[in-house]
Amino acid sequence: MNFGVDKVKAAVIAIDLHRGHMDLSVATMPVKTQAQADRVLGNASRLFGWCRAQDWPVIHLVTTYRDVPEIRSNPFWRTRADDPNATRKNVERHNIQGSPGCTVMPQVIDPAKDWIVNTKKRYDCFIGTDLDFTLRAHGINTLIITGVNTNSCVLSTVSAACSRDYAVIVPSDCVDTMDDPALHDAALLCIRTALGFVMTSSEVMSLSDLKKAP
Hints:
Layout: E1 10-15, H1 19-22, H2 34-53, E2 58-63, H3 68-72, H4 75-81, E3 115-120, H5 131-137, E4 142-148, H6 150-163, E5 167-171, E6 175-176, H7 181-194, E7 197-199, H8 201-206
Helix pairs in contact: 6-7
């Protein structure tokens, strides 16, 4: 399959697959159901294992704030904290450094191999982090973007990656949202229309031009 690059050199971007979203016992912004969390984590775990076998780095982006002012400096988020019906009503308590939410879910991380970028503070994973530097330093030209939420952090990061001239692949069963499912679908439609390729994780793993040479 033609991804628009001469030779694919890929990395996985795992966005906020941490306890703050995916562990419903401690999450401040949980996905809606345990089944939803289990489905995304299970699919991502299988895909990440396959990608590690191709010698592709798996990079975990973890939202982490020093304090509440770093959160409240975003005008829109201040309004969410004041709305008891908003899915982001707990934004001022979300992933303060040292809290349980800042831990990557064990199902999807290999501590011996994976990289962690824990300076993410906004939807776009490139803003305020060294992600772009790391990718360029390792010659990465293709990003397999996974995680939550499809309609905020995933969509924003995909858009930013496209604008930075990375090829982008989004495995549709390795992303999801704590918001309305229709927003998940709408985000995937935006991505496949203008920003990157959308396919299932099984389809990603079946592509012959992505497989490591024997």
